[in-house]
Each structure stands twice: as structure tokens, then as C-alpha cells.
Amino acid sequence: MLHDPNHLYIFDTTLRDGEQVPGCQLTTPEKIEIAKDLEKLGVDVIEAGFPVSSPGDFQSVVELSKAVNDVIICALTRANKNDIDVAAEALKFAKRPRIHTGIGSSDLHIQYKFNSTREEILERAVSAVKHAKSYVEDVEFYAEDAGRADLEYLAKMVEAVIAAGATVVNIPDTNGYCLPDQYGAKIKFLKENVKNIDQAIISAHCHNDLGLATANSIAAVQNGARQVECTINGIGERAGNTSLEEVAMILKVHNQVFGGLTSNINSQMFTYISRKVSEMMNMPVQPNKAIVGRNAFAHSSGIHQDGFLKHRETYEIIRPEDVGLLEADIILTARSGRHALKHHLERLGYQLEKEELALTYQRFLVLADAKKDICDEDLVTLVTSRQG
Ligand code: KIV
Ligand code: ZN
After folding, report:
1. Residue 131: which domain range?
2. Which atom of ligand 1 is nearest to the CA of 170?
3. Is there a single domain that holds both residue 127 and residue 225?
4. Nearest atom in ligand 1 to 241's CA
5. Whose CA is nearest to atom 4 of ligand 1?
6. Which of the residues 90, 155, 166, 171 has the least number of beta carbons within 10 Å of its own beta carbon?
7. Number of structural domains found in the chain
């Protein structure tokens, strides 16, 4: 597969790694709706499911393959013949099918999960890729628990699966174990020591157990990865996966650091798609979640509000419009200053003289100490009760 070295491929696994979270299960029509939105969002790959896992998941991959036209549809398998046969069958209507096969690469997985040896696992990896390749041109291989795998062995595995035909090599930090510099160094090592690495795209798949999924994915990109596997709102197994919206906005805000690397993501859809996934999957988004949390663009302290109202860039690195929000929020609390109160009163049509504003502000503080949320009605009452 020819790939553009200046493009960061966004591989969305909301409907696979995300959907495997308890309580997040979706029906096939719901998955189709989200897949169509992901296509509009501009992702390059949609991981549609794990077909052998259940008849429902199989059917979802079939229907998504029919419903989506431009994006690669990917199906997950373990490294065995039956999984791959079933995935190939589920992908038969996909215009751009990809099989994602793989096996554990750390000694912990090899010994305890497979009761096997490094040599045997290497053989299984290679034959799985060859078998997948007999069905589709585009085969992605995942070296599960690569975050804790021996580096030399991982390099050997990566080289062997590329030689067997893998077009993408996924280096998952399955347990969210690595630090960003460790994960980045792993990618750099593969880039520099695997002789056929230029024949494949390196993919980062990071979990968030230590809150480092996004940082690790970014470190991977800085060291040569050109695909990031992520989910909307960062949902996924345990503490979740890398959040798609965070990666896309980091790329945008720090574009010069990435030497002009681009993605096709339309960030203006973030608020919409985040809310939709949250509602459909019954997974609330934490209010302070970067980019899409309720408070991500809400300024509440007086010092910040004053600076923001004088010049928004003092406290704003992303314009809310860029993520599909109408505007930033100036929240009124007991920590707000006069400037914020004046701003809201003017918005409601009240122009107060300096002295009157000062008096209203004192009464506002008493109210705000007693009441958590100050709404427009409260402000109107504050002004009109005094005027009356
Ligand atoms: O976290 C992981 O290792 C995975 C693989 C199945 C890609 O989700
Ligand atoms: Zn995962």
C-alpha cells in the first residue's frame, strides 16, 4: 500500500475497542449511524468489529462494509485461521477491506497467555499475516503488549510480518504501561533497526491506564509512526484509548512541530460527534475532558475572565468554533470578577454606571456564595429589584 509520508492516518476504533466497554454496546443501525459520521469527520480507517466474537458483531461488520464507501473498513482477528476466515467473510462487501490480525509479543503474554515460546509465536504471527493476505491486500498486524515486549524480539517480529505482507504494523501499549519517552524510543528503534520498515506504516495504539495514551501516541508520531488508533471521547477498554479529538487538535495547534503533517479530520464536528457517541453509548464525558468536556471552554475565575474579555488569546489556545462550539463560556460564580458580571449584564441589555455596577457586584457575590449556578434570571432579578 502506497502511503503519503506527510499524512497522519487516523484509525478510529470507537466501534471495536470502544464498544467492548461494558454498557457501551450498540445495535447495528446505531453503529451505521456513527460510522457515517466518522466518515464525514474524515477518519481514514474504521475498525468495525471483531467478527468471530459474536453473530451480532459479524453482522455489524457486514452492514458497515455496505454502508461506508470511502473509508477503509477493518475487522479484528486473533492469529488463527478461523478468525481470519470469518473476518474475510464479514468484509466481503467492503470497498476497501483491511484485516487486523495479531498476537501477544511480550514474554508475559507468550508464557502465560499462550504457554508458548518466542519462536512458535513468531511462526504463528507470520502464518496469520500470510493467511490474511490470501484474502485482502491490506493487512495490519498487532504485536499485543508491545509496550512491555523485548525490543530485539519485537523488531524481529515486525520485520517478519512485513516480509509476510503486513502493510501496517501496530505496536500496542495494550496495558498503558509506557512513558512517552519510552514509547517514542520503541518506535524510533523499530524505524532504525527493522530493515524493511519503509514497506509498512507504523501504528500507535495506546491505552490510558496511567493517563498517558495521548502523550504516548504523540511521542510515537514524533518518532515516525504515521497512524494513530483512537476513539471518540477516548473511550475503550479499562481507562480507555487515545482520544481522537486530542490527537487532531494537538496536530493543529502544534503543526510546526510536526513539520506540516496533516490529517483529514474536520474538527468542527467534534462537539457534535462527542455528544452523539456519549449519548448512544451511555458514557458521560467528564466535564474537564480536553476538547469536548463541558468545561473545556468555560472560564470561571475572575483573573482569567478579565484577561479573556480583554483579549481572548490570553486564556484560549483553541477557538471554540474550531471544535463546533458557538462560543466560550464565561461562568458566573463567587470567583468571578466585575468584568465578567458587566459582560453578562450587557449581554442582557443592562448598561450600569461604575458605581451601580460596584453595588450590584457586592449583591451578586452574596448570591453567588449561596447559589452554585447563577442564571440569566438571577441577574435580571439582581438589577431590577434594585432599580425598583
Ligand atoms: O490494546 C490492544 O492491544 C488491542 C489490540 C487487539 C490491537 O486492542
Ligand atoms: Zn486496545
Report:
1. 7-279
2. 7
3. yes
4. 1
5. 174
6. 155
7. 2
Same domain for 89 and 121? Answer: yes
CA separation for the pair 119, 227 (Å, rounded):
28
| Global pTM exceeds 0.85 | yes
Give the whole-angstrom CA distance, residue 211 versus residue 247. Answer: 14
Instruction: Tell me which of 109, 205, 229 to substitute to probe ligand 1's pocket, judged by most ligand atoms within 8 Å of the beta carbon.
Output: 205
| Ligand 1 close to Cβ of residue 13 (< 6 A) | no
Instruction: Compute the chain's Rg from CA coordinates.
Output: 25
pLDDT (tens, 9 = 90+) of the chain, 388 residues, equals 568 889 999 999 999 999 999 999 999 999 999 999 999 999 999 999 999 999 999 999 999 999 999 999 999 999 999 999 999 999 999 999 999 999 999 999 999 999 999 999 999 999 999 999 999 999 999 999 999 999 999 999 999 999 999 999 999 999 999 999 999 999 999 999 999 999 999 999 999 999 999 999 999 999 999 999 999 999 999 999 999 999 999 999 999 999 989 999 999 999 999 999 999 999 999 999 999 999 999 998 999 999 999 999 999 999 999 999 988 899 999 999 999 999 999 999 999 999 999 999 999 999 999 998 899 999 999 998 865 4
144 CB near ligand 1 (under 6 Å): yes
- DSSP 8-state symbol, 90: H
Q: What is the CATH number of the domain that holds 58?
A: 3.20.20.70
CA 291 to the chain's CA centroid: 11
254 with 309, same domain: the answer is no
d(CA 259, CA 187): 18
Mutational test site, ligand 1, from 12, 15, 16, 17, max ligand atoms within 8 Å of CB:
17
Three cell numbers written together for 136: 485482502
If asked whether residues 233 and 325 sit together in one domain, one would say no
Of 279, 313, 328, the position where a domain reaches its end is 279
